[in-house]
Amino acid sequence: MQPMKVFVAGGTGAIGAYTVPALIAAGHTVTALTRSPQKSAVVRAQGAQPAEISLFDRAQLRDAFRGHDAVVNLASALPSAEKFMFTSAWRECQRIRTEGSASVVDAALDAGVPRLLQESVVMICRDNGAEWVDENSPVDHFPVAVGNHVAEANARRFGREHAAGVVLRFGIFYGPGAAHSEQIMRMARHHIGFRAGRPGAYVSSIHLADAAAAVVAALDCPTGTYHIVDDEPVTRRDDARAMADAVGVRGWITGPGRAASLLGDRTTSMTRSLRVRNERFRGATGWAPRYPDVREGYSQMAEALRSQAPSSTSS
Ligand SMILES: NC(=O)c1ccc[n+]([C@@H]2O[C@H](COP(=O)([O-])OP(=O)(O)OC[C@H]3O[C@@H](n4cnc5c(N)ncnc54)[C@H](OP(=O)(O)O)[C@@H]3O)[C@@H](O)[C@H]2O)c1
Questions:
Q1: pLDDT tens across 235-250, in order?
Q2: Which residues does residue 5 pair with via DSSP β-bridges, in sequence order?
Q3: In the chain, at which end, N or C, are there fewer CB atoms within 10 A of the end residue's CB?
Q4: CA angle (210, 215, 219) in 5-degree steps
Q5: Which of 39, 56, 74, 117 to mutate to test the pocket of ligand 1 (most atoms within 8 A of CB)?
Q6: Angle CA 95–100–105, to nearest 5
Q7: How far from 32 is each of 11, 42, 73, CA to CA, in Å?
Q8: Whose CA is nearest to atom 1 of ligand 1?
Q9: How far lies 75's CA from each of 68, 84, 92, 96, in Å?
Q10: Domains, the chain, ranges and CATH?
Q11: CA of 95 to the centre of ligand 1 (A)
Q12: What is the pLDDT of residue 160?
């Protein structure tokens, strides 16, 4: 792949913190949208150029996008685990995914950028029990998914009007830096397993390092929608077991279990059974996950967090 000039929105978040260095390591020149001088300093330290502008200001975006070969939109404001159930907590995230994705696409069109990548989630696919889910499987339109559908439609609009519009539907993020997965790992150390929904329901995940590698690989792939998940989705029972094994404990309690399904639409992205394939993206780009399943990925994560933890012994 030729070195490209890439603009990243959301480059200062969890996936962004892996993506910006991965793009630079692959030889690309990166500009990242920032919202504070502190984040600009972080971006500069990674070797990228910060652009302190608003995601909602189309003119500012257009000027910043000029001369770039690709725009990558990873911006979001997913509510914390404690607030996930409250519709009001989703307001900012919905605005970023609806108004924000529209202004990014309009500005990229105005600036003549030839390629746009938009993040989305596999959790908008319909529950398919133990059957596989691919990019042709039906999607659902539950309230918290509105933003994802609008963002995907904007990326498709870009693809129709311009050169390449790529939607990357990620599985559940985990790894050092993915706050909710770190929280679940901390619970596991206290013998509490997280299992939302039926024990036999499938969950499709992706380590942040593999998600970032997929963004780099997508700079070269044809217009379309792609599922970015690991090779082997596991049941929720096995997912909780893999987490407990990674931290070297036995799970005593698991929750919230089937009770999470009682909240219906508000938790459906966590409880539905999604056994998602990644073949389309692997075939289009040659990308393959470094962590083929959560058993390997959670072990790496536990190891990395252990080495980050302050030492309990004083010298
Ligand atoms: N968590 C999962 O399991 C999962 C799975 C698949 C996909 N995803 C999605 O992937 C995306 C990235 O996730 P993440 O974990 O990296 O999120 P994150 O850590 O919360 O990062 C969000 C990014 O968006 C930026 N942002 C927030 N509000 C903004 C605004 N008003 N204007 C401009 N930028 C704004 C943040 O900037 P600041 O640094 O300035 O706050 C940050 O760079 C999210 O959309 C998430 O839903 C998540």
A1: 999 999 999 999 999 8
A2: 29
A3: C
A4: 140
A5: 74
A6: 145
A7: 6, 10, 10
A8: 173
A9: 18, 18, 11, 7
A10: 5-306 (3.40.50.720)
A11: 12
A12: 85
Token pair of 270, please?
């966590």
Q: How far apart are CA 144 and CA 244, in angstroms?
A: 30
Atom 33 of ligand 1, residue of closest alpha carbon: 55
Query: Both tokens of residue 102?
Result: 């529209």
For residue 117, which phi and psi values (nearest 5 degrees)? -115, 130
Please give the C-alpha separations between residue 245 and each of 23, 238, 240, 313, in angstroms, as whole numbers.
33, 10, 9, 25
HSE (CB half, 13 Å, CA atoms) of 72? 30
Cα separation, 85 vs 269, in Å, equals 11
Q: Is 12 in the pocket of ligand 1 (CB under 6 A)?
A: yes
Q: Which residue has the tokens 């770190």?
A: 182
User: Does position 254 have pLDDT exceeding 90, yes or no?
Assistant: no
CA-wise closest residue to 149 among 118, 127, 180, 171: 118
Ligand 1 probe mutation, 173, 182, 183, most atoms within 8 A of CB: 173
Q: Which two tokens stand for residue 192?
A: 């509490």
Please name the residue ranges forming H helices in 225-289.
Answer: 236-247, 268-271, 279-285
The residue whose CA is least distant from atom 38 of ligand 1 is 12
Report the predicted TM-score, pTM, of the whole model to 2 decimal places: 0.93
User: In whole angstroms, how far apart are CA 128 and each of 56, 218, 272, 288?
Assistant: 36, 27, 8, 24
